């Protein structure tokens, strides 16, 4: 399809990228960011989890979380924000036992989970 429909060139728009077999919105956003330097938000399981857990983007779908994060993250941070959020969700705000005691943004967290409430009481 790349050869026949796109003249052997990787498409530069999300709409065209998702036309390719196996490419969804998240992958298209990664390609746009990494290959073409666009500020996008590739919402994976980590970003979906921490977006809702922390109250940054309280939504149920990756597309809705993406929309909220793209709106609230200042433009100067947007290019790197999805990497920061993924890493935070992978190593600190983990799924089963978040490490609130070492979290550098715990004071911003709106999580109701016990480990966060114990380490950093939320008013």
Brief rundown of the structure:
With 123 residues, the protein is mostly helical.
Verbal overview:
With 123 residues, the chain is mainly α. The protein is built from 7 helices and no strands.
Keywords:
123 residues, mainly alpha, Endonuclease Iii, domain 2, disordered C terminus
Topology:
Layout (H helix, E strand, L loop, with lengths): L1 H5 L7 H4 L7 H10 L10 H9 L8 H11 L2 H17 L22 H6 L4
Helix pairs in contact: 4-6
Record field, number of beta strands: 0
- CATH fold field value: Endonuclease Iii, domain 2
The CATH homologous superfamily is named Helix-hairpin-Helix base-excision DNA repair enzymes (C-terminal)
- Helix percent band: 40-55%
CATH architecture verdict: Orthogonal Bundle
Supply the number of structural domains.
Answer: 1
Report, as a whole number of angstroms, the end-to-end distance. 54 Å
Low-confidence stretches: 118-123
